[in-house]
Design brief:
The protein is of the alpha/beta class. The chain has helices spanning about 15-30, 45-55, 65-70, 85-95, 105-120, 140-150, 170-175, 180-185, 240-265, 270-290, 300-330, 330-340, 340-350, 360-375; strands at about 1-5, 35, 60-65, 80-85, 100, 130, 160-165, 190-195, 200, 215, 220. An 8-stranded mixed β-sheet has the order 7-6-5-1-2-3-4-9, with helices on both faces. A 3-stranded antiparallel β-sheet has the order 8-11-10, with no helix packed on it. Helix 10 (about 270-290) crosses helix 11 (about 300-330) and helix 12 (about 330-340) packs antiparallel against helix 14. The protein is elongated, with a radius of gyration of 25 Å. The termini are far apart.
Length: about 375
Amino acid sequence: MNITVYLGANAGNDPALRDAVRALGRWIGESGNALVYGGSKNGLMGALAESVLAAGGRATGVEPQVFVDQGFLYDELTELIVTRDFPERKAKMLELGDAFIAFPGGTGTLEEIAEVMSRVALGQLDAPCILYNLNGYYDGLRTQLAHMIELGLSSEARQRGIYFADDLEQIRQLLEGFPTKGLQTAARRICVPAAHKFHTCSLSSIFSHAHVARENDFTFLPPAGGGAARVTRVGNGGIGMWFVFALLSAVFAALTSILAKVGIDGVNSNLATAIRTMVVLAMAWGMVFVTNTQGGLTDISKKSWLFLILSGLATGASWLCYYRALQIGEASKVVPIDKLSVVITLVLAFVFLHERFTPKSLIGCLLIGAGTLLMVL
C-alpha cells in the first residue's frame, strides 16, 4: 500500500511530534507499505522519510522544481518525482496514494488534506483519509466538520471516509481493515490533461525515459506493475535551469583560473588557497543565511556528515594541487588537465554509484582525453 503522508518541513517545538513521526515512519517501513510524501529533507518531513528508509521501506518524494533548486530535497530517497509547480505536486501525490494521512502540520498540510477530504466526500476517492490527531491537534477541525453537519452543509454520509486517529495503533487498525483498492486502481481509468506534465527520476539519473500512451491530447500514466515504468517525464524535456547554472559554473570556473593565475604571482600557493577558501566560506555561509536554511543543520544524518566532510577534504586537496600547478605551469595547459575530472567522475560514478556508462559516455570520455592531450602536448 502506498501511504501518502502530508506534514510540514518544520520540526516544531514539541518533542512528541518528532517521536510520533519517527514511529509512523518505522511502522510504514516495517509493515511492507511504502511512503509517498513531499520530498523534503527538513523538519518532520525529513525525519519521516529517514525512519521509513532505516526500517527497510520505500520512500517516494514528490518535490516541485522550485524546492529542488533551493536544495530542499532528500537525496537518499528510493524515488524522486519533480513537478513543475505545486498543483502538479498535489495531483501526483493524490494519484500515487492508496491511503492518506495528515500528520500535524501547517497551512500547507491543511490545504492538501482538505482536497483529499473533498474528494472522499464527493465519492471521487475510495481511500481512507486519516487525520493523525496527536495530542488533540485536529480537535478543532473535528468540531468544525461536526458543525457543518449541524448546519446542513455536509452530512455524515459524506464524511464517512474521514477518520481521526489519536495514535499510531488506531491508524494501523484503520488501514489494515481497509481494502487496498483506492486511487491506484482508479488511476488506471483516470487521464491527466497533457498540460500536466511530470518530470520523474530516480536519484541515479535526473532524466529517465519510459513508454507513455497518448490519446486525444491526454496522457495516460501507465499503472504500477505494468511493463513500462510507472512514472515518467512527458513532453518538453528541454533545457532547464540546471543548464543555466551549469553554464554559469563553467564561466566562473574559467574566471577562477585566469584571476588566480594573475593573483598568485609571487604568492605562496598554500597561502593563496587559504585566502580563496576564506572568500568561498564567507559566500557559502552567506547564502545559507540569506536563504534561511541554517535550521537544516540538525537534520543532517551521520552518513551525510561523514561524506560531506570527506568531500570537503577532497576539495581542499584539489585546490592545493590546482594552485600549485597554476603557479608553476601555464593556465592554458593546467586547466584542460584539471577538467579530466569529468572523465574520472564518470568512471567513479559507474563503479561506486552504479550509474549507467553508455557507449555515448565512453565516446565522450575518449574525446575529452584526446582533446586534453592535444592542448597540452
